[in-house]
């Protein structure tokens, strides 16, 4: 897995091959195929092992918690040990539904679940409208990071993330006239 990460960083995903990974690791390509069906599977395992758990703060201030966590996420994505591999796998997942599922199941879903829990807490505390689906709120907040990273090929800085959170929360805040209903399933 380390060989796959290192080689991908050096030659890029397009030029990454099972043969190259095997040579870098000092094993035969059959050894690689015994454990992984494709270069993307090796790279995903390497990425999963490289990504540390991005803790989600739980203070009384949802805006501060979101800003802290989103800056941490942007920093992780900017890391040369994570960013290029993550972008390559996201790109490849557009053509490979099995990889898309694996990327979601093994990496992204855990991070989204932590964000959903924080949004639900904010809804219970009256900081975010209770009628909104927490998944929608997560997509609204984190979508700009992915847009800037994958489309504009640059990550938002802390100032930009602060603006994203402040702008989004202004629209997500409960109004005095809003009903206090539970979020939709």
DSSP strand (E) fraction? under 5%
Supply the CATH superfamily name of the largest domain.
Tetracycline Repressor, domain 2
Count of individual domains:
2
CATH topology of the largest domain: Tetracycline Repressor, domain 2
Query: Average pLDDT value?
Result: 88
Task: Assign a percent range to the helix content.
Answer: 55-70%
Main beta sheet: strand number and arrangement? Answer: none
Radius of gyration, CA atoms, in whole angstroms: 19 Å
Number of helices: 9
What does this 3D model show about the protein?
With 185 residues, this protein is an all-alpha fold. The protein has 2 domains: 2-46, Arc Repressor Mutant, subunit A; 52-172, Tetracycline Repressor, domain 2 (Orthogonal Bundle). Helices cover 68% and strands 0% of the residues. The chain is built from 9 helices and no strands. The chain has helices at 2-11, 18-25, 29-35, 39-50, 62-78, 83-93, 97-124, 134-151, 158-172. The termini are far apart. The model has no long low-confidence stretch (mean pLDDT 88). Keywords: DNA-binding, Transcription, Transcription regulation. This is AcrR family transcriptional regulator. It comes from Actinomadura namibiensis.
List the defining traits of the structure above.
185 residues, mainly alpha, Arc Repressor Mutant, subunit A, Tetracycline Repressor, domain 2, 2 domains
Give the arrangement of secondary structure elements.
Elements: H1 2-11, H2 18-25, H3 29-35, H4 39-50, H5 62-78, H6 83-93, H7 97-124, H8 134-151, H9 158-172
Helix pairs in contact: 1-2, 1-4, 2-3, 4-6, 4-7, 5-9, 6-7, 7-8, 8-9
């Amino acid at each position: 897995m380390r060989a796959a990460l290192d080689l991908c960083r050096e030659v890029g995903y397009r030029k990454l091959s099972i043969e190259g990974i095997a040579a870098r690791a000092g094993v035969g390509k059959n050894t690689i195929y015994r454990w992984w069906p494709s270069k993307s599977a090796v790279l995903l395992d390497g990425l999963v092992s490289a990504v540390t758990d991005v803790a989600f703060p739980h203070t009384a201030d949802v805006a501060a918690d979101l800003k802290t966590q989103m800056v941490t996420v942007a920093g992780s994505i900017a890391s040369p040990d994570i960013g290029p591999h993550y972008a390559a796998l996201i790109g490849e997942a557009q053509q490979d539904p099995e990889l898309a599922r694996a990327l979601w199941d093994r990496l992204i879903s855990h991070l989204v679940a932590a964000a959903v829990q924080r949004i639900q807490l904010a809804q219970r505390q009256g900081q975010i409208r209770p009628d909104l689906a927490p998944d929608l709120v997560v997509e609204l907040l984190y979508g700009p990071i992915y847009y800037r990273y994958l489309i504009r090929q640059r990550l938002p800085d802390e100032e930009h993330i602060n603006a994203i959170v402040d702008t989004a929360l202004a629209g997500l805040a409960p109004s005095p006239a809003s009903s206090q209903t539970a979020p939709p399933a």
